[in-house]
Design brief:
single chain; about 400 residues; alpha+beta; Nucleotidyltransferase, domain 5; 5-stranded antiparallel β-sheet; 14 strands; about 20% strand; globular
Length: about 400
């Protein structure tokens, strides 16, 4: 370390400033801050979650508090207002923090309180993306992609790859509350290295769809049951160049969408059964992680999770411990789903393709299908009945 240019001490040129406290700028600072904060939380009865190390849980008798940490931003909730206020006072005495009251904005996510839950959206963030792309006055599109859209690596190169990467990267963050664009963003994200003009036109199509649904978000309401339900699907050999499949899942807890994903499988599957089986294995791993998290939150449902798939052959493969020639080449780690089914830690059931909600993550759909599945995800405009005065929020 050296004294910065322009601020060197002529009398003590070899001396440097002693750093007492820093949160940004040094690689060690975030780790030191987290150690300091976690030590304080543990000393006050919190337990660090093993499923998510940024989550701390406090439970004493019937009192429960959850505290989520993101660098120096904290979210605190619980079931006893007095206990929460007492702990906030302890936080004030230990750290220089500011209590912002009920959450309404966090890391670009806008939180609106409804009569029986929350509504999450990224309205301002979506507006900023449209402004950057110059599409605030563009004509809205009914779906993120046309139903006959195909992607190839060949074509006329786009003149500004940096602009393409910037827009796609911004759209990736928008998928936090907009799972309806997950498939489209996943597809255009595969050509960041050398985008073509056709790829850029697809990005503009996604942005035009966002323009027409800029206020859309996810609705979370008080669940009527604590069931954990997962949907798994794969579109066999979707990529026409690599012949790899696109797989996806969506997981609902009490009817609320809590986790989803749309990715391209790393290997080529020999059949639709194999691609579906691999997708089910990945979904099962996510379901098990969520069960671990719910157990630490003291909210684990009594019944084991259920995994729905629209491929009967893949479901049969999860229940059949005998390996035959059609499945012996599948890696052993994918067969974990068999162990979960045999140990009655997971149920697998068939679901009709008409109700396979994760089809929205595997392919470009027609407008009626797209809007139907979007509704099943509980994704739409803000609820008409909100709690409190929105203008004040």
């Amino acid at each position: 370390m050296e004294q910065p240019p322009g601020f060197m001490d002529p009398i003590l040129p070899t001396h440097v400033c002693r750093l007492n406290k820093a949160l940004y700028g040094l690689k060690e600072a975030p780790r030191a801050w987290f150690h300091r904060l976690s030590t304080f939380l543990v000393s006050n009865g919190f337990v660090c979650s093993r499923a998510d190390t940024s989550l701390f849980v406090f439970k004493q008798d019937t009192w429960i508090m959850y505290l989520l940490v993101y660098v120096d931003d904290l979210i605190l909730t619980g079931n006893q207002d007095q206990v929460i206020r007492t702990f906030i006072t302890k936080l004030h005495n230990e750290f220089a923090i500011k209590d912002l009251g009920d959450i309404n904005y966090f890391l670009g996510l806008e939180v609106t309180h409804t009569t029986d839950g929350l509504f999450l959206s990224q309205f301002k963030y979506a507006q900023d993306i449209l402004h950057r792309a110059g599409l605030l006055d563009a004509k809205p599109a009914p779906t993120p992609l046309a139903s006959n859209t195909t992607f190839f690596t060949t074509g006329d190169p786009y003149k500004d790859p940096t602009d393409y990467r910037s827009l796609v990267g911004a759209l990736q963050y928008l998928t936090i509350t907009r799972p309806d664009i997950s498939y489209a963003v996943n597809q255009v994200s595969q050509f960041l290295q050398a985008p073509t003009l056709a790829h850029y036109q697809c990005v503009r199509r996604i942005l035009r769809y966002v323009k027409g649904t800029v206020a859309f978000g996810l609705t979370f309401s008080r669940p009527s049951s604590n069931s954990l339900l997962g949907y798994s699907d794969a579109d066999w050999a979707r990529c026409l160049e690599t012949r790899r499949s696109t797989y996806c899942y969506s997981i609902f807890f009490g009817g609320n969408l809590v986790s989803w994903s749309a990715k391209k499988q790393p290997t080529v599957s020999h059949s639709s059964c194999e691609s579906e089986y691999r997708a089910m294995a990945n979904t099962a791993a996510e379901l098990i992680w969520i069960t671990h998290l719910l157990r630490e939150l003291h909210a684990l449902p009594p019944d084991c999770p259920t995994l729905l798939c629209d491929n009967r052959s893949a479901i049969f493969l999860t229940r059949n411990p005998v390996s035959h020639k059609r499945s012996k080449h599948i890696e052993l780690d994918y067969h974990i789903i068999r162990e979960l089914v045999l140990s009655v830690k997971l149920h697998t059931k068939f679901v009709s393709t008409k109700l396979q909600v994760v089809d929205i993550f595997t392919k470009s759909l027609s407008r009626p299908q797209f809007e139907f599945f979007r509704g099943l995800l509980r994704l739409g405009p803000p609820p008409s009945r909100l709690r409190g005065d929105i203008n004040q929020r």
